[in-house]
Structures are given as structure tokens and as C-alpha cells.
Amino acid sequence: MTFSSCLTDEDSSLVLDASVVINLLATGYPIPILRALAIPIMISDNVVREIERGAVNGRQELDLLTRVIDDGVVGVAELEGDALETFFDLVSGNSSESLGDGEAATLAFAHRMQCSAAIDEKKATRLAADRFGSIKIITTVDILAHDTVRTSLGDARLADATLRALQLTRMQVREHQFGWIARVIGTENVEACSSLRRLAKRLAGTPNELTRVVTEQG
Question: Which of 40, 72, 113, 126 has its CA 20 to 30 A from that of 210?
Fold first, then answer.
């Protein structure tokens, strides 16, 4: 089965979780990638604070995020009203049924505005499906695989961007996305990405069978 991005022309706006923002910043091309989508893109102020805390701990994303915001590529939203109530509900309760501030704020905003949410974490994706069936969840890979992003970057820059996100931030890849990812970066680079090595073993038994996996996936 050929993988294609689930981000389509029907998505009129998009809100990004911190993990997706960090992945996109790591690509080296966050501005051309996000501009290529040609839709309004938002992040919550909770996500900004989460990335600020990471900067204090030595991560380098904050300066680039500030540039992305200052250039008007993404907007920053503050939760209020119903969205704030939804946020508090999502961060409450036991650990298996609650989320961190950034993920909760992203889902609360998406639910309030009836827009799509870009989130990579599987627990947040599961809770979104359980509690907000109307929210469409996409991943970082869906953004990279979108036709306009691929056209805007070109094959070489897309391969570089994808490999950087995999190596620098360990971008999550779903099983059905593996074949596309391996073709973009080249099967010879899969071994250089720890998360892909584990996924390849799960899909194919051993990394030596990567070629067969890519053929079957694509």
C-alpha cells in the first residue's frame, strides 16, 4: 500500500503540538515547510512555554521558534473559555488518561476551533480518538509528505530535512509510514536512525530485509 499524507485540502487550519514543532525546527527548513501548507497554523502559548523550558535545559529550538513566530508563519493562541475547561480536564486524572500541558492545550484548541491537530505521541492520539472523535490527527510525517511540501523542498532538501528530524529529535514514524520514509532518506540511512532500526526489525525481522519491506510498503 502506498503511503500518502492524510493532510489534505480539506484541512482549513492546523494547530501544532510541541513535539511536532521541535521536529520541524530540527529539519532546518521549518519556514518553507509550513509556508508550503498555505493554511493558518497555530500553536498554544503552553507549547511555547514547553519549548522555553527545554531551552533552559540546553535545547536550542527557542531562537528559531521565535523567528518563525515573528515572521508570521505561525500564530500563538491563549486558551480561554471552553478550551480552557477542556485543557484542565485533559491534564487531570491518572497518568494513563491524562496529558502534559502542551498536548492537552493542542487538543483543547483543536476541539474548540474544530481544526486539525498535529501530534506525534500515541497516547495523545488515542485519547483524542476516544474523547474527541471529530478532531483529525496528523503527524510530522504527514506534514513532510504533503504534496506542496515535497514540491517546495524538492527531493534533496526533503531527504535532508527528514533525516535531520529523525536523527536530531527521533521523529516518530508509524508502521504504515516506514516505506515512504525509507525511500525518502535512502534505505542506506535507516541504520543511522535508532527509531527506524527498531521499526525495521519489527516489520521485517532483521534490518537486512529493508529492501523487501520498502517494496511491500510502497
Answer: 126
